[in-house]
Amino acid sequence: MSSYTLEGRTGTWEVVCGLEVHAQVVSKSKLFSGASATYGGAPNAHVSFVDAGFPGMLPVINQECVAQAVRTGLGLKAQINLFSRFDRKNYFYADLPNGYQISQFAHPVVGTGIVEIELQDGTIKHIGITRLHLEQDAGKSMHDQHPAKSVIDLNRAGVALMEIVSEPDIRSPEEAGAYLRKIRQIVRYLGTCDGNMEEGSMRADVNVSVRKAGEEFRTRCEIKNVNSVRFVMHAVEAEALRQIEVWESGGEVKQETRLYDPSKGETRSMRSKEDAHDYRYFPEPDLLPLILEQEFVDALAADLPELPDEKRRRFCDQYGIPFYDAGVLVADQTTADFYETVAKGRDGKLAANWISGDFFAALNRTGTNIETSPVSAEALGQLLDLITDKTINGRIAKDVFEEMVETSALPAAIVEAKGLRQVTDTGAIDDAVTKVLAENADKVAEYKSGKDKLFGFFVGQVMKAMAGKGNPALVNEAVKKQLG
Amino acid sequence: MSLDAATVRRIAKLARIRVDDAEVETLQGELNAILGYVEQLAEVNVEGIEPLSGGAQMALRARADVVTDGGIAEKVLANAPDRAGEFFAVPKVVE
Amino acid sequence: MSIFDLTIAGAAKALAAKDISSVELVTAYNGAVEALNPRLNAYITVTAELALAQARAADARIAAGEATPLTGIPLAMKDLFCTEGVRTTAASKILEPFIPQYESTVSGKLKAAGAVMLGKANLDEFAMGSSNITSGYGPVENPWKRAGSDAKLVPGGSSGGSAAAVAARIALGATGTDTGGSIRQPAAFTGLAGIKPTYGRCSRYGIIAFASSLDQAGPMARNVEDCALLLQAMAGFDEKDSTSAEREVPDFSAAVQRGVKGLRIGIPAEYRMDGTNPEIVALWEKGIEWLKAEGAEIIDISLPHTKYGLAVYYIVAPAEASSNLARYDGVRFGARVDGVDLIDMYERTRAAGFGPEVKRRIMIGTYVLSHGYYDAYYLKAQKVRNLILRDFTDAFAKVDAILTPTAPSAAFGLGEKMDDPVTMYLNDVFTVPASLAGVPAMSVPAGLSAEGLPLGLQVIGRHFDEETVFAVSAAIERAAGFTALPEVRAK
Q1: Which of the listed CATH numbers 3.30.70, 1.10.20, 3.40.50, 1.10.260 matches domain B5-41?
Q2: CB contact, 8 Å: A61 with chain C?
């Protein structure tokens, strides 16, 4: 395994990193109120008196949010805790209406689990999951809407979040990126979070420390609210370099909360959050312990979709495609489903090659995606059928595909309309070969004197003469025969 | 355990209550009297006893995931000491 | 006989018989409020016009034959219940001004039953107190006087306004809330019946929270029967409160008539505390004799952790309160004192808005939850709380109800017991254990002190067995024949 290290003045440093991923739960209503969890909306439109922390208001938990957390836990191969509990995390902020966040501190709903990540060089690494718990999102303070005031929109306040905490098992920016992408892939497969980092429905707090080989962990800093995979990777490196500089110049890294500034590519201390971190957690007295029945968990497990790792292995086994290719095809559920529609009952390798080659290229070129693609999985499958039953050859198939991309027509119709069926009539092929050899008598002589390479030239010329429609195997055979 | 003035100030800060010097002194005395009184719990043997956090002995009941609330911005803002349009307004926060 | 002599049950009968109308009844009560409230300060907000409108609607409902036993009955609503469109203060300046856009479940149920709201009753600020002197809207005067003295006495707390209003007959009944004794102790101080039902029996939705794991709504009235009628309407499952019990509400009025023959009544040794007023002990002995005479079996029991109840309470309740009261930050409702920045605004707002007792409790609560002290205080208190619950569970394996005094003394004077907070807290010593265990408990007037002040006895029952509590309380009420009335009252 290639190991990532940073060279300092005093030697080689290793990076130690753990991620806390905040993933917004896909649900219609909020975690503890009946207000809509939909993103956006007019200011304070998706707010109930419960969300706004009005006197006498009480939380009532949303069953679906619990189910989504359990599904995610199952997807992370994690232990599901049948007993869990909500606690209050007390702190004052203008967008935290109650003056506390309802979270799960002492008894999270999901315990330890494992996530498998794959690195560029194909290495597989396991990252431990410490826990997953449910909590409320806060509202939004905006400081640039009014010259003299900060303004508050509570639409997000109370929306359910899953906080997924990893072990400090991550050792490089690449691993951090791969881990975050993997979490996003899993929650998207499960339908428990849309993974949309631009809208903030997924964000990460990144814990970073550095150490020299063989050392215990040194002091870590937490970089809050990093909102893209790329920024997470950059932040890990930038923060590691900063800490190395602090240690090497004789200083001491102070445990603190920092912010990543993408425009400068550096992290900076968040002074405003620094005062007295004493959250005074205690059991939320407005709620009772969350007791799950094993049958409830089992039913969710039974309904779980196939996850990317399993799907990838199955694709390899069932369709005989390489592990790497399978990884590309299971990147997201839509691609995987598309592949399976095309591959089912056909040559899996041929399907994989077509999808990761011509099909993805066409999507890129036309600026479409699988959902909006001009070529459906069914149509692509039909094209493969035409190749397999030798109606057309591979060369012509590419032309037919381009026509499909342009017109969305079905392949059989294109083949018929343009007369692209491949020629298997040996008489016609023999005639074409005879003609080509006659026109290239000098080359025939060269071939016969030992220039074997010219064989391909003759085949090419014959195909060209037949407008590409000759059956390649038959053409080969005929050329060989006539050249003696 | 006895509270000193600095701790009283720290607690007041955590609780976001402004206290002046005279109040610190009064509070220090009163809080120490209360803490002195509750000190008697030290003598209770609680080995093997689970903490009891609530008055109700039941499991949590959950509601269905249905949108039943919201769309009442005016009511939510009706009691606001300060607002800017449909937003609540507070003194400007510099981050 | 004056219209003010009618109880709720009596008034309901008179309304049903069309002997009186709700408008007549409410007009009389509105007048009495106007005459006596300036002196007693029992109401923070008087809603005379609303009451009259509700009375008219009640009369129409009675005429249509759709009345409940509470239709047209004028009540005082403790100002801790949020009432839609009617100013709600929790007796705190920090909620000045606050007009809820929603209705608490309990007040909503009373409204739906056709009850009439005369106004919002005074209380200790955020229900924190045992004398009503912590109210941001001034203290409430107890309508009772010591014989031969004009000294103003406290009505108890925190439901002191409710108690004074019913005792002075400027309300026929009232809602209260009880966290550590806030219904039972003022009921005892003013010669009323009052019940704190089982935790979870009444919804807490819309009641301004003090300590969530202890707060319970309940009724206060002139007698046990009226309390049963009120609780019948107030109780019931509410899906908006996760701690509300999904249980049928039994027929409390029927339970009042049950009698105590064959019931086993526990007398806990630990309630005979050193220094308890001998008058109180003597009254307790009388209560025991009355129940025995009615056919109950008296059994000595032990509730060994009783003496730790107050200490547990003064950790748990402030801890929860410190968090519950964090929402009063001047951002979304209530008062705001401007500051140079957000934190300054919070600190000034909360310093100006909260009174001294509330600040004390927030500070204590913040401290016991803070880093390094949680285990020693809060966690320890929760464990002892479990032992207190266990005491009750063990006792209720042997007995059907428990009889104790309600309070260690009769009503005291305004300005007394002010030396330090702990002396004041000791008022709750007999009521707090039932609150911590979540079991139902009722105070019933049982006699007068030598100074002519009412004294109460407390009946504690099993979880969700308010019926037995009502049955035992009614037996004591019958035997005691308590008929004394305060001098200050509507006549």
Answers
A1: 1.10.20
A2: yes
Q: Determine, for residues B95 and A270 on separate chains, whether the beta-carbon distance falls below 8 Å.
A: yes
Q: Which residue range is the domain that position C87 belongs to?
A: 3-254
Q: Is A100 on the interface with C (CB under 8 A)?
A: yes
SS3 C16: helix
**What is the reported pLDDT for A1?**
44
Number of structural domains chain C divides into:
1
- Tell me if C7 is assigned to some domain: yes
Place of tokens 């219609």: A28
C78 is catalytic: yes
Q: With a cut of 0.95, is the ipTM above it?
A: yes
Give the Cα separation of B11 and C376 in Å (integer).
Answer: 17
Q: What is the nearest CA distance from B24 to chain C, expressed in angstroms?
A: 11
Compute the distance between CA of residue A10 and CA of residue A356 in angstroms, rounded to an integer.
46
B vs C: CB pairs below 8 A: 172
**For range C223-247, the mean pLDDT:** 97
Tell me whether residue C362 is in a domain.
no
Range with lowest mean pLDDT among A272-276, C92-96, C308-312, C467-471: A272-276
Q: What b/e string do you get for C411-421 counting C-beta neighbours within 10 Å, with b at 16 or more?
A: bbebebbeeeb
Sole residue written with tokens 């004794």: C181
Q: Is residue C404 part of a domain?
A: no
| Chain C contact partners (≥3 CB pairs within 8 A) | A, B
- Tell me if C351 and B17 make a contact (CB, 8 A cut-off): yes
Q: In b/e form, how buried is each residue of C364-401, taking b as 16+ CB within 10 angstroms? A: bbbbbbbeebbebbbbbbbbbbbbbbbbbeebbeebbb
Q: Which residues contact C447 (CB under 8 A, 6 or more apart)?
A: C283, C286, C454, C455, C480, C482
- Does some domain include residue C149? yes
C158 is catalytic: yes
